[in-house]
Write a structure and sequence with these properties.
about 300 residues; Rossmann fold; 9 helices; binds nicotinamide-adenine-dinucleotide; globular; alpha/beta; about 35% helix
């Protein structure tokens, strides 16, 4: 197909401090392999640049300029809700949008963080038991993973956060939506609870290059409990390394990151991305950032 006949897509990412985001590279590489002329631009904007009306005008301007959609990340995932024309029911339930699609119907807000996690979870840990699960962290990532876990049928979800109000906020939000399932919150010791968890989802920043260390000691878990990590810089966090060394089933943070890009691409283009190809792109990019890191494709 010549470039002249290729379908064009123009997409952006709105966020603060996103200069090193790997999302553009994932979109561009897969978009082009899908036969599209795919452009992806970063809008790295500090949170106090716009008031709500200014933000709405900025995003509306992107639509008028011919953008097909906009990925949205911290600190805008809640703010864009006020001016989206409609929301997917999941984005409304989570209260966060990470993708705005611009089309004839206006501006539609979606959330592919939860589907990205959920899809990755099912491909990597789908056969593992998940009746009773611990989630560490109740921030932006935790809102998506908790929703995913509840949608995946977790019966008893314990949400642990140093900030008790944040954990309680998620329980208050999701409790009424998942009436047959139990959500417990903690901010203190998990002492007697450890053996009951089938697995743990780690969604705090601990383990990032900037926040090294462990938010929890995985040795407390039952021997066959699995670990799902959301931190992916570095890919081999202390939690991932320690859980693998103990022979656990582990899903690393790249899986959710690739998953949200794959699901965004599908919604934006109507085409089916090749999930393995996108994951492999992301692993390659992460490996290039940290050549000494052992990268395992799972
Ligand atoms: P956030 O600041 O919104 O929330 C983090 C939460 O963790 C806070 O509520 C905080 O109180 C809690 N916390 C911090 N340390 C803790 C500890 N030791 N024990 C218990 N709770 C603790 O951050 P976020 O946006 O949710 O991001 C969290 C991590 O997830 C970051 O590393 C981010 O890069 C990563 N992330 C990954 C993906 C992905 O696609 N894989 C997507 C989003 C975020």
């Amino acid at each position: 197909m010549s470039v002249g006949t290729m379908k064009r897509f123009r997409v952006g990412l709105l966020g603060e401090g996103i200069g090193e985001s790997l999302t553009p590279a994932m979109h561009i590489a897969e978009g082009r392999r899908l036969g599209l002329e795919y452009a992806y631009e970063l809008f790295d904007i500090t949170s106090d640049t716009f008031d709500e009306a200014g933000l709405a005008a900025f995003v509306t301007g992107l639509r008028a300029a011919g953008f097909d959609g906009l990925n949205v990340t911290h600190p805008y995932k809640q703010r864009v809700i006020s001016f989206a024309d409609q929301l997917s029911s999941d984005a409304r339930s989570i209260g966060a949008v990470n993708l705005l699609v611009f089309d004839q119907g206006g501006m539609t807000g979606h959330n592919t963080d939860w589907t990205g996690f959920s899809g990755a979870f099912m491909s990597h840990l789908g056969r593992a038991p998940r009746s009773t699960v611990l989630q560490m962290g109740a921030g932006g990532a935790g809102a998506a993973t908790a929703y995913a876990l509840l949608r995946l049928g977790v019966e008893r979800l314990t949400i642990h956060d140093l900030d008790a109000d944040r954990a309680q906020g998620l329980a208050d939000r999701y409790g009424p939506m998942f009436l047959g399932q139990t959500i417990t919150v903690t901010s203190g010791d998990l002492d007697g609870l450890w053996p009951s968890f089938d697995g743990v989802v780690h969604a705090t920043p601990t383990g990032m290059d900037k926040h090294p260390g462990l938010a929890m000691d995985p040795d407390h878990l039952a021997p066959d409990a699995w670990v799902a990590e959301v931190v992916y810089r570095p890919l081999d966090t202390a939690l991932v390394v320690s859980a693998r060394a103990a022979g656990r089933q582990v899903m690393d943070g790249s899986m959710m990151a690739a998953g949200q890009a794959i699901d965004s691409l599908r919604i934006l283009t109507g085409l089916e991305p090749d999930a393995d190809r996108v994951r492999s792109d992301l692993l390659g990019l992460l490996q290039a950032e940290a050549p000494a890191t052992r990268v395992v494709a799972e």
